[in-house]
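Q: Here's a chain of 214 amino acids. Please give me its 3D structure as tokens.
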Amino acid sequence: MTSDQDVGRIITSDACVVEGAEWLAASDPRFAQALQLTGPLPLRRKPDGFSELLSAIVSQQVSVASARAIWGRMKEARLTGPRKVIWASDDDLRAVGLSRQKVRYARALAEAGIDFKALRDAPTEEVVRILVEVPGIGAWTAEIYAMFSLGRADVFAPGDLALQEATRILFDLPERPKERELRTMAEDWSPWRSVAARLLFSYYHVMKSREGIR
């Protein structure tokens, strides 16, 4: 794991995730209980850069299967880079399956001129601020990007419904916590909030599988 005063700790390997999971289990017995059910947590590191965010935009409000199909057509048409998106016509982008709204979002991202290499060294708050300025990218997408593409160890995505539901079940809450409430709860999981997210994601899948929901 690497670290920087501004960036914070960076998750680079399975060993980093194990370290964070052990810290969480020691700090709260409910996390220890969840970890027993989930087993070792996944690293879940993804590439960073334009195409990763474009893929996130493509995936919004469609099924996983549909998103994969659209992204596959975009790759075949070589429409996954900023210049290609800018040069493409609206008809080209619609032909691969993008809605009119997503065509606008894709163009906005391509035209934003984000320095993705610079984001690697920027504080998480700055990363989120820069990304949410782009139409079609909200706080959830920006936080997930910081978590899995940039490997930030101490970022959370409290707007995620799976995280909210997993927290409700694990912490035996009367109802699913709202985004603001969960953001406050997650402060107790610092400096390993992104590992807490990994654990809650895994716990959610375990509990839903027990209910026969996948």
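Q: Can you summarize the key feature?
A: Residues 83 and 110 are 7 Å apart (CA to CA).
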